Amino acid sequence: MTRSPFNSNWSYRPKTSIFADVHGQSSAGVSIRLPHDAIIGLERRADAPSGAGGAFFPDGAFEYLTTLDVPLGWADKHVALEFEGVYRDAMVYVNGAFIAQRPNGYAAFVVPLDGFLEYGAENTIRVDARTHADSRWYTGAGLYREVHLWVTERVHVAEHGGVRITTPDVDEDRAVVAVTTRLDNTGTLTRTATVITEILAPNGDVVAAERSPVTTLPQSTGVIRQRMYVPHPRLWNVDTPALYVARTTVEGISYDPEVRHTSFGIRKLQLDPQNGLRINGDSVKLRGACIHHDNGILGAATFADAEERRIKLLKEAGFNAIRSSHNPISVAMLEACDRLGMLVMDETFDMWADSKSPFDYSLAFPEWWERDVEAMVAVDFNHPSVIIYSIGNEIPETGHAVASQWGRKLTEKIRELDDTRFITNGINGFVSVLRDVPALTEAATSEAAAASSLEAAAADGGVNALMGSDDDFMDQLVGSPLVTAATAESFALLDIVGLNYGDVRYQMERDAHPNRIVVGTETFPSRIDRNWKLVTEHPHVIGDFTWSGWDYLGEVGVGRVKYAGDADEDSFDGAFPWLTSWSADLDITGHRRPMSYYRETVFGLRTDPYIAVRRPANHGRAFTLGQWSWTDAVSSWSWKAPTGSPMILEVYSDADEIELQLNDHVVARTPVGTRRALVADFEIPYEPGTLTAVAFQGGIEVGRSVLRTASGPTLIDARADKATTPLRDGALVFVAIELRDADGNLVNDADRPVSVTVTGAGSLAALGSGRPRTFERFDQHTHSSYDGRLLAAIRPDSIGIINITVDATDATTSAIQIDVLPDNGALPITVRPDSLESIPA
Questions:
Q1: CATH label, 715-821, candidates 1.10.150.20, 3.40.50.720, 2.60.40.10, 3.40.50.450
Q2: What is the pLDDT at residue 726?
Q3: Global pTM?
């Protein structure tokens, strides 16, 4: 019995009418291999309907087509397709007949094909998808997540949620492992089977087992509950993410028993206002990052290796938790979080029944919300990384007594499905009272200021513009009695009160509700120093999730520096050709920006000083920073600036003082924290050479960092993240490309076009930089560097050798070889969760 990838031999094309097909007016399909984003390769334009929110990409409707050869022997089998996500409004057809739909672009769903197939023949599978004015950020479109083909016996373990594992009682001596298995009978006969469950320790040893008979009637489901005991369990946590595997075998239904492997972790979650969040008895503060679902230069395409790379780099940057904003997370990323030890807050929706975009999911929410919640929980249930469910993001209904009852339905549904995790809601007090304009005006600092702000927000940037415009206004409003009264019922539904930009309420909630737990579900990155102090000083505040951890496509220019004289100086969003939000610690290629090192210092995870230099080309220009902004500083001392040019430096450190040495001469020494906590500011004349920052605590050196000016010929430093890769659909090789001198110093101020040629057993999937404002595409073989860096994503296509050549004008050429090996069917470390395999009789 098999669950196999169904990602090859697809084609896609823009969707047209059947009449256009008849008259030969439709375009021919383009052959592809999933996952695939139909939007990322289209030309952006300033007048695109998606606007700044969708990064000026066009919308569209698309048709995906493939064939399935169905042997006669499958007539007695159960056949289904599993879609991990289709954006959006998916319509599924078999042999031209409609069989299923799914409006939600992020929900996983299974489509049984029984009754629609022609056995002993080739069957056509068609999936239609579309996107238009349905989101506030870049979504991509099409079959952007993987598809799987299930072929099982008529009596089989259910595809989604078929095996559910909990660990309700854990101590040092043993852990109780409760396994619930759902057996579906899609046949016409009553059948009796035996379900055998074995628990495999991280080293592969069987440490517990149980067998149970079950009889299922035709077209019915049998539920088997087994309770086992694992001695001396290895516990899952962020530092040691130990994973067990439940091996489920179903015997008595065929000569080939069905075997499924499901990975899980043994851990204990606790929550209270005195200790906050505890995992296995240890208090944990969530160093959180909000992330969107896109993979930068790859668009929305969800490659397993890209998802894992994001989690790895986020963890290296000091984060221990992510919030999937604002939709259910991908299976591939959940698996990466399990393996690497990253905590997850998984989120259901960005809207309920009240729309935020003209054609968004609110049109389907009243009818589909329950099935979509079931889908999210079914995917998440066995993943130890998932500790919190969020029922929404900045939902307007949270401030309305009647409309907020949707929240009650959502929380109760989740508790019915999974009572082992905590529930929150990313509530923005401002959004909750947004429509109460008279009261909003009264709550503001002054009626005139509020009216002016409201007028500006309506004209440009909407809610985000008003939120980010003024510290005092936002704090006064969110902390006002108006918001307190409006959100009281919505807060009361939750295990954890989630506050978007509501840090002013942390102490208020403690005072008014001593039993209340709080988390900063979304916070301004510019406030991390004071917000983290609130988190560490208040046990009832369990963490902070910054907006955002990883840069994303859309909501363009939210975090940009606004310089006087720029054409979009007075607008909230960046003007075309702005591409990304530019509000994150890591850019879309995964390169850490200076604000990431500041955050790492705030978290207490970094002791060496970090040197950031503001771009000399902008010296003297007046500028403003928004709440999502950081300065334009770069960690470099290689500039095309005349000697003696004034340079502004920011050095991040938890020491008392920072001393600057330039070419072995002390040029400045200043206290840390004069302008901002953990920052020492300098202005010195530029002189090429060696710049050193020395940190002093109580007059004693505690750390130092060095920057050196690049000189001599420019070399291309191209480094692949792996030397070998398996041939599977989610596999990628990432090649970091940097311009450096012979001593390894980055050449950041001499950007140029860089070309990547791929031959042999692979192909170029994408090439791009972290540049947030660009006309360039990611599907070309040449792209300009940004601050001396680019990223290439290479996809293996066959067994053999991939040859990668990187060259640029006035720079040496670099060459890399990658071995593509046969796929052994397993991801690193653990067996892929919910995988099926055939075993001999």
A1: 2.60.40.10
A2: 96
A3: 0.94
